[in-house]
Amino acid sequence: MSSSLLTAPPLNPIHEPFPVGRILRPAGPEPKRQHKVIAVLPAYNAATTLAATLAGFPPGCVDEILLVDDGSKDNTVQLARDMGLTVIVHEKNTGYGGNQKTCYKYCLDHGADVVVMIHPDYQYDSRVIPHAVGIIELGICDVVLGNRVRSRAEAMGCGMPWWKYVSNRGLTAFENLALGQNLGEFHSGFRVYRRKVLETVPFERNSNDFVFDTQFLVQAVHFGFRLGDVPVPVRYFDEASQINFRRSTKYGLETLKAVGQYWLHRLGLRTNDLFRPKSP
């Protein structure tokens, strides 16, 4: 696979006539994707939703699917192996962030050009994967998130608890303002990364808990990467993993802390290892 991902959309203003038949009736077989795409599923007790999540993957949209199991008590591991996934097992629960660290280290070690992270709880619509990957491949963004909140009516109609909707909107508005971004939401379990992002962001220093995701995005902003999002239909139901109100409150406070750490570091008031470049 080629690692020559575009870093910016090409500027090629063609002036000669362009035959539209090249779009409508392409000659020869459809070109094969030139970049290695690995999907990672950080899993804990995902046996009841794993198959449904995988069934939504469009054929050929990724080259490998890795499931990292974080000490599940059900048969997630055996089911994943039976379905042909690459499986890494944590004998002890390392936390949501600790799980992702294993995911991304594997992808870097195995030559991924693009990495898709999606929760295996069937909450996110995996049919969107090739579209999000395409935005990376076209050089438009370095990080693409799935946005669950296209409208209040839709999000809550799909089962999002009202307190989670309010906190999501409040934290996202704060993060957009503080970080100079314009994302629909910062708290998605569907994310796509360019390899360079994983090579640059020192995610190994991040928390092993849920705030890992926020720290990662704040770090991506610090290192100058371009963030974008795509709308992703979402499903809330009993089997879909959700953190409770108490843990959500802790996560919200840690999110505010991460943004505060970013600004203290940026202003030179207090340096933080989260924003120190990786060692060569």
Keywords summarizing the entry:
7 strands, 10 helices, alpha/beta, 280 residues, seven-stranded mixed β-sheet
The counted number of beta strands is 7
The Cα radius of gyration reads: 19 Å
Mean pLDDT: 88
The shape is globular
Q: Unreliable segments (pLDDT under 50, ≥5 consecutive)?
A: none
Structural class: alpha/beta
> Approximately how much helix is present in the residues?
25-40%
Order of helices and strands: HEHEHEHEHEHHEHHEH
How many separate helices?
10
Strand fraction: 5-15%
**First CA to last CA: what distance?**
24 Å
If strands are numbered along the chain, what order do they take across the biggest sheet? 3-2-1-4-6-5-7
- Main sheet, how many strands, which sense, barrel? 7 strands, mixed
Oligomer: single chain
Task: Provide a descriptive summary of the structure in words.
With 280 residues, the chain is of the alpha/beta class. It is globular and about 60 Å long. Helix 7 runs parallel beside helix 10. The longest helix has 22 residues, at 245-266. Helix 2 (50-55) links the parallel strand 1 and strand 2. It has ten helices and seven strands. A seven-stranded mixed beta sheet has the order 3-2-1-4-6-5-7, sandwiched between helices.
